């Protein structure tokens, strides 16, 4: 029995090694490519706004469930200065374009086909929701848009009721 | 950020203009309520319906046909193997119930209809399995204690003519490293009671057995498209572990004696799995390895591969292959010698012999509109000690 426990602990230990890597507190200074092919520096993308970044992929069903929530968030708080953007990770521009051609996505979508930004952010899960302040500090990370995320967004937009 | 102050000022001007526009619109009676007042959290999160509701429904019909020969069956000659042919039809219904945003229940009702076209041991002595029905209920509940902590519980009940079973279990999982990893532990207790049916058809009251099981599992995201998980399970069984009506041929082919197992059995299983998604081709590859051993001296290895391929956004095909090999228990015999070990353990059950087995499977899943899905699947299982099975399944599921 001991050898099985050792083996199990070994597997757990090997697997968890990557879980302890600290993740950055700020967005890295990178250039992003929009789904229409335009390149923009990340700071320009943020445009001095509180920004919600949704890391997603076309194959990710959990991401699909987040999209209506992000649409409603954009509709509700876009007028109050919130910026919502999508960041597709790991997929080619043609795949993303074909997907966006079928779906109605009202907020801008950017591409990270080589996981460059996702790796720099230390994010491996999809979907991931990031809340970023106007100067690029990452305030919040979550696997989905939830009540805690909304409370933070409202506090940053000074909309607490 | 090259010029955050300038950008902020631009946004400030934009906000002022928007406010002015909204004020004009409000005066003209054009402004909508949604613009004047942001939607509620519940509306944004899609939680407007907070009450108890059914959020998932699935139906499945599975037919299982097996044929082959095993020495535990009395349907052959005294010394030889008998038929293991059987047909099982299993309709199954699953209902998912959302009690609140943090509590979810799942009720599964499987029904087995067993038609043994030729006799196994039970058919020789009883009509019970000529056509036999079994029904069960499984209730699994999930409680999200926090965003990172989850408690699960399950209760199952199963009943058929010579056999009844009940079990309950508890599990706890915790998300670590911002959900990049999940650690889980779980335990299960199972209690079986059944007629003490002898190979000659006599019944001697009831017998019981108990199984206690504990598992620890760990899941780790290695990349956005790569998942690894590993688990270890320990099971302890106690009671009447043998199938009381199974028989073992005696040496010389003159007669048979009943199967006898040790009173306890301890089982260990360790498993590792990895899944890799290939976004550009919409393909997912999965591989798994499992090692099993127990105190009956049975060692087993399982290797499994799966390929999931989206042929279109609404059509998914899954191919699978599984290879399994086991050593067999150390008291397996097809010609048992009755000596002073008469009361010792012995079995001729082909499930406990040394064998190699393979399974090929193909499944087609059609994702229809409204989060409903239809699937059809076929599996062929065969092993080198004389048994094969064909499994055909049709399913429908919908989420609400």
Q: How many beta-strand segments of chain B? A: 19
Identify low-pLDDT runs of chain B. 1-36, 117-128
Q: Any idea what the radius of gyration of chain A is?
A: 18 Å
The class by helix and strand makeup of chain B works out as mainly beta
Give a written overview of the molecule.
The complex is a heterodimer of chains A (161) and B (400). Chain A is an alpha/beta fold. Chain A contains 6 helices and 7 strands. Chain A has a 7-stranded mixed beta sheet with strand order 2-1-5-4-3-6-7. In chain A, strand 3 (50-56), helix 3 and strand 4 form a beta-alpha-beta unit. The longest helix of chain A has 17 residues, at 61-77. Chain A is globular. Mean pLDDT of chain A is 83; it is low at 7-20. Chain B has a 16-stranded antiparallel beta barrel. A two-stranded antiparallel sheet of chain B has the order 11-12. Residues 1-36 and 117-128 of chain B have low confidence and may be disordered. By secondary structure, chain B is mostly beta strands. Chain B has helices at residues 4-27, 33-36, 41-45, 121-125; strands at 53-70, 82-83, 86-98, 103-115, 131-144, 149-160, 163-176, 181-197, 203-223, 226-239, 247-249, 256-258, 264-278, 283-294, 299-312, 315-326, 355-367, 372-383, 387-399. Chain B starts with a helix and ends with a strand. Chains A and B meet through helix 1, helix 3 and helix 6 of A and helix 1, helix 3, strand 9, strand 10 and strand 13 of B.
């Amino acid at each position: 029995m001991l050898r099985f426990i050792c083996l199990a602990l070994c597997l757990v230990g090997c697997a968890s090694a990557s879980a302890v890597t600290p993740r950055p507190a700020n967005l890295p200074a990178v250039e992003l490519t929009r789904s229409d092919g335009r390149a923009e520096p990340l700071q320009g993308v943020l445009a001095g706004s509180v920004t919600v970044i949704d890391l997603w992929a076309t194959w990710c069903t959990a991401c699909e469930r987040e999209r209506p929530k992000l649409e409603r968030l954009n509709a509700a708080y876009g007028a109050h200065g919130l910026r919502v953007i999508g960041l597709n990770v790991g997929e080619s521009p043609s795949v993303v374009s074909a997907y966006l051609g079928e779906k109605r996505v009202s907020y801008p979508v950017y591409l990270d086909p080589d996981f460059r930004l996702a790796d720099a952010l230390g994010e491996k899960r999809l979907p991931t929701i990031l809340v970023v302040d106007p100067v690029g500090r990452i305030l919040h990370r979550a696997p989905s848009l939830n009540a805690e995320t909304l409370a933070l967004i409202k506090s940053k937009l000074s909309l607490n009721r | 950020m090259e010029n955050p102050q300038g950008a902020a000022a631009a946004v400030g001007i934009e906000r002022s203009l928007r406010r002015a526009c909204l004020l004009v619109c409000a005066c003209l009676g054009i402004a909508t309520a949604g613009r004047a007042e942001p939607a509620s959290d519940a509306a944004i999160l899609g939680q407007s319906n907070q009450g108890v509701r059914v959020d998932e429904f699935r139906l499945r019909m599975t037919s299982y046909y097996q044929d082959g020969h095993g020495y535990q069956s009395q349907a052959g000659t005294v010394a030889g193997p008998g038929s293991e042919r059987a047909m099982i039809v299993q309709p199954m219904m699953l209902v998912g119930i959302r009690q609140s945003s943090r509590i979810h229940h799942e009720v599964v009702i499987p029904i087995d209809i067993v038609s043994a076209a030729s006799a196994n041991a039970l058919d020789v002595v009883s009509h019970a399995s000529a056509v036999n029905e079994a029904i069960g209920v499984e209730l699994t509940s999930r409680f999200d204690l926090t965003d990172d902590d989850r408690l699960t519980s399950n209760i199952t009940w199963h009943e058929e003519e010579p056999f009844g079973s009940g079990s309950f279990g508890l599990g706890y999982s915790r998300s670590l490293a911002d959900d990049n990893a999940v650690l889980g532990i779980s335990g299960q207790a199972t209690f079986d009671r059944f007629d003490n049916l002898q190979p000659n058809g006599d019944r001697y009251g009831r017998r019981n057995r108990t199984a206690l099981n504990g598992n620890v599992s760990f899941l780790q995201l290695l990349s956005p498209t790569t998942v690894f998980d590993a688990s270890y399970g320990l099971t302890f069984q106690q009671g009447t572990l043998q199938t009381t009506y199974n028989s073992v041929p005696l040496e010389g082919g003159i007669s048979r004696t009943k199967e006898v197992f040790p009173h306890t059995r301890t089982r260990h299983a360790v498993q590792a799995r990895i899944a890799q998604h290939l976004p550009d081709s919409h393909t997912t590859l999965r591989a798994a390895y499992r090692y099993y051993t127990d105190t009956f001296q049975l060692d087993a290895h399982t290797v499994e591969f799966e390929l999931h391929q989206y042929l279109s956004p609404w059509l998914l095909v899954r191919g699978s292959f599984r290879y399994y090999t086991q050593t067999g228990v150390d008291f397996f015999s097809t010609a048992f010698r009755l000596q002073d070990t008469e009361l010792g353990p012995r079995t001729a059950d082909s499930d406990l012999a040394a064998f190699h087995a393979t399974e090929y499977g193909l499944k087609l899943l059609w994702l229809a509109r409204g989060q409903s899905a239809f699937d059809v699947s076929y599996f062929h299982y065969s092993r080198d000690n004389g048994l094969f099975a064909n499994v055909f399944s049709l399913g429908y599921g919908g989420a609400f």
